[in-house]
């Protein structure tokens, strides 16, 4: 079934994209801090904080 | 470090918010209409565009791509700017994105009502729209990536990961599933046939749920729930694991829509296994959202916004537990083709997507209009009406599904089927009526929200460009040792966009070309022959009228189905079906072996007035098929396109086709005349009868020979 090959290929391409994105994100230090990002996004508004 | 002054674009956000509300109302009203037509078939109005088979695709497409689609863009445009501390990359792209998307929706709805459809569920829009969607999606991607690259916050918050994942996956799914060969401006045939078409379609269909209804909304959840609760997300680390696990596993689960069909068994098993694995990341995400509200539960009691979010997450949890259960073959044997599937998707659509959207709108609209919500009390009322609406919608459908499935499978002591198909339908019609009540309640809540927000908007002042300031992102990031090559691209947004498009493009091309050149090796059955020209026209009519929204063409290998419909369906029977028409719901009986079951005159009378042949039937009448003439001029082009797609019509058959058409149509007209039914041979009903009488008969020919 050639379509299985197509889908496996397409799925693998997406999986590979995410794998590379993952490696990049680790190397970029996206996960070195798992505390402040969660808090930082709460404090970005000047005008609309109640 | 000096602060940079800039502004957030709220205008595009506002437009998308208005579009979300408008299309939400339109899409849900279409759904209510179609659902109520199952109780009162007169609501089909005897008029083609208002018949269930055409309204249902309008409903599904409007809710998924117009309501939820605009909801995604609204939330992404609002949160992305604030998370990146940057204005959207380009105001022009924002404008093109907004108006382009609305034009696609309006044009799509119109063409669907006119009967232009590919006949593939949730991908019904015809090829010019498929191209337009691709282009607008690229605009959205460019605008989003450009913003990310111009961000003033180095760290990408988890919501942004979900937005990027959504964009990449949808681009790929849409392009691969939309491969089709145009016949005319608004008609094309799927590139794939039969089993392959089914697999691609449900790989797409399931991941439309995954990457259009789920991942972007999870991104929105990770932004708006912490914001509304004013609490950080329960576990940031968990959210990252959630993202990677979910996107990786989701893409494989599609075959669970084809359990017990002619799809090879190993593919079915693969779909089941990955579906079960999906429970873990799905529930991880749900719990992460719910636990974000720890210590804020006292506020949930009063705050309608948090109530909407809590129910949205609960519905997400229920739907993502139910989904894997439905993917078990033994459960699927009961649930498939029944209203259980409809109930399941509506827990997701009404609960998860709807309620999350409502919560976001209530939270966001007052902020961009710098005012307070007009009435908190109304918002609470909306919450309760909406929740009751969901309950009244899904519980009758679960009940209907169990009842009907059990009735289908009952045998008498003598070993014959206990119930006629029609009896199983008339039994559950009261449940359909209750479902409409639920839908009506839910829509009433939506209307209340629109009024509430309109009053909020009237008393507020719109902040089109919200001033903000932030330090610029350090141009020279601290590098350890050698600078990575990727740094070069990161600083060049336009190149990055182009590169990412090329990367996505290469993958598609590399996988596509060999697939179309290498012939498939589905087990072929020598007696299965291509459709005759008249049958091809009939098939087009079958697709145009959306027959597949209520009738399946796939007999599963169960005792009751074989007894009711005939021998179970084989993969080789569908090799010339561009597109496949297996369907996913049996509001009416399966048609895979309809051919030869009734005389031509039965079909004639049944299409003109279904109740005359099956008293109590809820099928709409199709009177226009008796007036419309078949466009015979198209026949050579149809044969030509089908041959290009691999259907083995002999060279030069185009010349012969018209004569064959006339001969077969004449025979059917003569048959009808013998039963005192006068109809010219060039009417659409004749072509449709030809197709219906062909269904599933090829395999009987080989049996007769043996």
TrEMBL record, chain A:
<dbReference type="Pfam" id="PF03597">
    <property type="entry name" value="FixS"/>
</dbReference>
<protein>
    <submittedName>
        <fullName>Cbb3-type cytochrome oxidase assembly protein CcoS</fullName>
    </submittedName>
</protein>
<dbReference type="InterPro" id="IPR004714">
    <property type="entry name" value="Cyt_oxidase_maturation_cbb3"/>
</dbReference>
């Amino acid at each position: 079934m050639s379509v299985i090959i197509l889908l496996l290929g397409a799925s693998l391409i997406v999986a590979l994209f995410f794998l590379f994105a993952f490696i990049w994100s680790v190397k970029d230090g996206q996960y070195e801090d798992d505390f402040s990002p969660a808090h930082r996004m709460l404090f970005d508004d000047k005008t609309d904080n109640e | 470090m000096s602060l940079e002054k800039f502004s957030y674009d709220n205008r595009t956000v506002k437009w998308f918010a208005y579009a979300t509300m408008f299309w939400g109302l339109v899409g849900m009203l279409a759904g209510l209409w179609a659902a109520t037509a199952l109780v009162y078939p007169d609501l089909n109005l005897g008029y083609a565009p208002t018949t269930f088979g055409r309204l249902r695709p309008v409903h599904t497409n409007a809710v998924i791509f117009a309501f939820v689609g605009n909801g995604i863009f609204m939330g992404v445009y609002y949160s992305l700017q604030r998370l990146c501390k940057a204005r959207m990359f380009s105001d022009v792209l924002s404008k093109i994105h907004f108006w382009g998307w609305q034009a696609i929706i309006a044009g799509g709805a119109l063409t669907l009502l006119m009967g232009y459809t590919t006949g593939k569920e949730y991908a019904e829009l015809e090829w010019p729209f498929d191209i337009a969607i691709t282009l607008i999606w690229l605009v959205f991607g460019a605008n989003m990536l450009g913003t990310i690259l111009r961000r003033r916050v180095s760290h990408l918050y988890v919501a942004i990961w979900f937005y990027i994942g959504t964009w990449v996956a949808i681009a790929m799914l849409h392009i691969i599933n939309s491969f089709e060969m145009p016949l005319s401006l608004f008609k094309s045939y799927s590139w794939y046939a039969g089993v392959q078409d089914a697999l691609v379609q449900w790989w797409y269909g399931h991941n439309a749920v995954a990457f259009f209804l789920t991942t972007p909304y999870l991104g929105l959840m990770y932004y708006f729930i912490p914001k509304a609760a004013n609490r950080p997300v329960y576990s940031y680390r968990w959210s990252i694991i959630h993202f990677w696990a979910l996107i990786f596993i989701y893409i494989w689960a599609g075959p669970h829509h084809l359990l017990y069909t002619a799809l090879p068994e190993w593919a079915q098993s693969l779909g089941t296994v990955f579906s079960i694995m999906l429970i873990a990341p799905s529930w991880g995400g749900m719990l992460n959202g719910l636990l974000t509200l720890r210590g804020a539960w006292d506020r949930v009691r009063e705050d309608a916004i948090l109530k909407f979010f809590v129910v949205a997450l609960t519905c997400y949890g229920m739907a993502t537990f139910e989904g894997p259960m439905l993917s078990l073959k033994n459960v699927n044997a009961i649930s498939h083709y029944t209203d259980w599937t409809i109930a399941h998707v509506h827990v997701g659509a009404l609960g998860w997507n709807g309620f999350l959207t409502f919560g976001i709108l209530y939270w966001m609209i007052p902020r961009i209009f710098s005012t307070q919500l007009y009435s908190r009390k109304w918002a609470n009322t909306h919450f309760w009406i909406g929740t009751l609406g969901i309950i009244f919608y899904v519980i009758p459908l679960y009940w209907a599904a169990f009842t009907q499935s059990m009735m289908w499978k009952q045998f008498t002591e003598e070993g014959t089927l206990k119930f006629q198909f029609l009896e199983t339908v008339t039994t559950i019609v009261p449940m359909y009526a209750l479902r409409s009540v639920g839908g009506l309640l839910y829509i009433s809540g939506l209307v209340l929200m629109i009024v509430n927000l309109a009053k909020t908007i009237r008393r507020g002042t719109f902040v089109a460009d919200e001033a903000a300031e932030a330090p610029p992102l350090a141009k020279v990031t601290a590098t350890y040792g050698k600078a990575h090559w990727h740094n070069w691209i990161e600083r060049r947004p336009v190149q990055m966009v182009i590169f990412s498009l090329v990367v996505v493009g290469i993958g598609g091309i590399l996988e596509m070309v060999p697939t179309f050149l290498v012939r498939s090796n589905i087990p072929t059955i020598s007696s299965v022959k291509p459709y005759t020209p008249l049958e091809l026209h009939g098939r087009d009519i079958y697709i145009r009228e959306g027959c597949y929204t209520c009738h399946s063409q796939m007999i599963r290998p169960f005792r009751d189905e074989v007894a009711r419909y005939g021998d179970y369906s084989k993969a080789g029977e569908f090799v010339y079906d561009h597109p496949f028409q297996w369907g996913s719901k049996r509001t009416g009986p399966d048609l895979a072996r309809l051919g030869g079951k009734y005389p031509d005159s039965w079909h004639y009378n049944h299409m003109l007035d279904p109740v005359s042949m099956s008293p109590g039937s809820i099928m709409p009448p199709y009177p226009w098929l008796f007036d419309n003439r078949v466009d015979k001029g198209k026949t050579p082009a149809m044969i030509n396109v089908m041959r290009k797609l691999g259907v083995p019509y002999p060279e030069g058959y185009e010349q012969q086709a018209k004569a064959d058409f006339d001969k077969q149509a004449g025979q059917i007209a003569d048959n009808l005349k013998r039963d005192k039914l006068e109809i010219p041979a060039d009417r659409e009903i004749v072509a449709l009868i030809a197709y219906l009488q062909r269904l599933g008969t090829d395999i009987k020919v080989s049996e007769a020979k043996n």
